[in-house]
Amino acid sequence: MSFKEVFDRYSWDEVKASIYNKTASDVIHALTKRERNLEDFKALISPAAMPFLEDMAKMSHALTLQRFGNTMQLYTPMYLSNECQNICTYCGFSLDNKIRRKTLSEAEIEKEVAAIKKLGFQHILLVTGEANQTVGVDYIERAIRQVRPHFANLSMEVQPLDQEDYERLIPQGLHSVLVYQETYHKEDYKKHHPKGKKSNFDYRLDTPDRLGRAGVHKMGLGALIGLEDWRVDSFFVALHLNYLEKQYWQTKYSISFPRLRPFSGGLEPKVEMVDRELVQLICAYRIFNQEIELSLSTREMERFRDHAIKLGITTMSAGSKTNPGGYAVEPQSLEQFEISDERSPAAIQEMLEKNGYEPVWKDWDIALENV
Ligand code: SF4
């Protein structure tokens, strides 16, 4: 069975109604149980849970400490290319956006690697747009081979690939793959992805299944917050996670909460998520699932990030550049989206230490790959 079959049993409108109908007693029930199911998760993300935010934050903090200790993993993205054949209404790299396109050559990748290593990172996330001619599987494979020996851990966020492609890349040292559904609202998904391979909702929805079958170590899920009702989208992320954990139990999982950010030619969020709601969502995921890694990027403001480390977040990016070559080759070129937390990795390290957290630059080694 694939997730699509599970997904097809649900109706967006019914899920929405059921979340908005949750009551204070449903929330109390969810908070007092030992283990929570998807109905409890609905209660935790419902408007009815808002008055319980303080309790949720305390519980989420305690559960995170218990499982992860006072640690915070740090990583940074490395954008290899901004070429893209898709139109996505919310992205600076969209095909219809007239920007200068750039794909890093081998020599340029070398320069970027050196600049990123100087910052102290051992965990790296390779990012590209979706352009099969220039940044197809061959390019990605060459890049992984080139970059992998310099870092302890390598993740990627690129176009969804076929299972055989993942099976080809994993032995090259690919550790984890992030693939966000953007929105689980099928009709709205079409509106935001009118052209290109990404407009195929089902192919994207099936990607974590292909990754699971290929045996990836870790995968990252999420929805782009702002495209649709975040409560409903977050329920579907939890549903997806629940299914995947049962189906591919040897794989680890992480969740991210990207909020729509300004970019060149920008799209206004349809639904604005305020900070208190993001706090609610982070805590809800943690209370629902104690094993999951929760990741927060530099899209969020300094103040929010400083606060969020005590809420349940276990992984953060730092010093991010969201343009190809942004660290050394082309620091001034157009970013995919604006960064809100512009502090240096060293400043993030200092902030973490001040708060009693140990920054973790490396928790994996290539030697563990075949263990
Ligand atoms: S979100 Fe990804 S696929 Fe869409 S335009 Fe941006 S880079 Fe391309």
Describe the protein in words.
With 371 residues, the chain is an alpha/beta fold. Helix content is 41%, strand content 11%. It has an eight-stranded parallel β-barrel with strand order 1-2-3-4-5-6-7-8, surrounded by four helices. Strand 6, helix 14 (275-288) and strand 7 (293-296) form a beta-alpha-beta unit. It starts with a helix and ends in an 11-residue tail after the last strand. The site of iron/sulfur cluster has 9 residues, from loops.
What is the terminal-to-terminal distance?
Answer: 29 Å
Side-by-side strand order of the widest sheet: 1-2-3-4-5-6-7-8
Distinct small molecules bound, one entry per kind? iron/sulfur cluster
Largest sheet: 8 strands, parallel, barrel
Rg, Cα atoms, Å: 20 Å
Task: Please give a handful of descriptors for the protein shown.
371 residues, alpha/beta, 8-stranded parallel barrel, 16 helices, 9 strands, 41% helix, binds iron/sulfur cluster
Topology readout:
Layout: H1 3-7, H2 12-20, H3 24-32, H4 38-45, H5 53-68, E1 71-79, H6 106-118, E2 123-127, H7 132-135, H8 137-147, E3 153-157, H9 163-169, E4 176-178, H10 186-192, H11 201-205, H12 207-214, E5 218-222, H13 230-247, E6 252-256, H14 275-288, E7 293-296, H15 302-308, E8 315-317, H16 345-354, E9 358-360
Parallel strand pairs: 1-2, 1-8, 1-9, 2-3, 3-4, 4-5, 5-6, 6-7, 7-8
Helix pairs in contact: 3-4, 4-13, 4-14, 5-14, 9-12
The protein binds iron/sulfur cluster.
